[in-house]
Task: inverse folding
């Protein structure tokens, strides 16, 4: 077992959040349609953001990339045996959630391929477009 798992925690979620994929998707849609459009949230997202790199900022637990009047929200998570990534596009009314119980980085290639097939932008600045989104996030977390 690795440092973030024990014999009893390896089958549990991470961070104390226990939802089905459907429940998570419903929650993300709620944020996209009900919370993020609120004026007070819009103001907070703009004024209290923390710059990360490559045009990306962080606020309310999300990485945020502004793109032509739009905001792309994204986040990933991993623990021993799990890799996950979430992408929200306000203008396109789109929520993408990929959850895996794999202990490799195949999700990185799958996510980037999905963005390419759907003709969606990677949520990072032009200088980072040659990197995988998951790899970019892993580098951010490591710092």
Result:
């Amino acid at each position: 077992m690795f440092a973030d798992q024990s014999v009893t925690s390896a089958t549990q979620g991470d961070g104390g959040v226990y939802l089905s994929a459907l429940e998570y998707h419903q929650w993300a849609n709620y944020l996209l349609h009900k919370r993020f459009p609120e004026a007070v949230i819009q103001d907070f997202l703009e004024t209290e953001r923390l710059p990360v790199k490559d045009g990306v900022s962080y606020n309310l637990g999300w990485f945020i990339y502004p793109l032509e009047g739009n905001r792309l929200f994204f986040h990933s998570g991993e623990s021993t045996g799990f890799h996950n990534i979430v992408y929200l596009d306000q203008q396109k009314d789109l929520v993408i959630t990929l959850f895996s119980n794999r202990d490799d980085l195949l999700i990185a290639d799958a996510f980037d391929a999905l963005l390419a097939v759907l003709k969606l932008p990677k949520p990072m600045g032009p200088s980072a477009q040659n990197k995988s989104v998951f790899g970019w996030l892993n580098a951010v977390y490591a710092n």
Summary: The mean pLDDT is 84. The CA atoms of residues 9 and 80 lie 10 Å apart. The two ends are 24 Å apart (CA to CA). Residues 21-35 form the longest helix (15 residues).
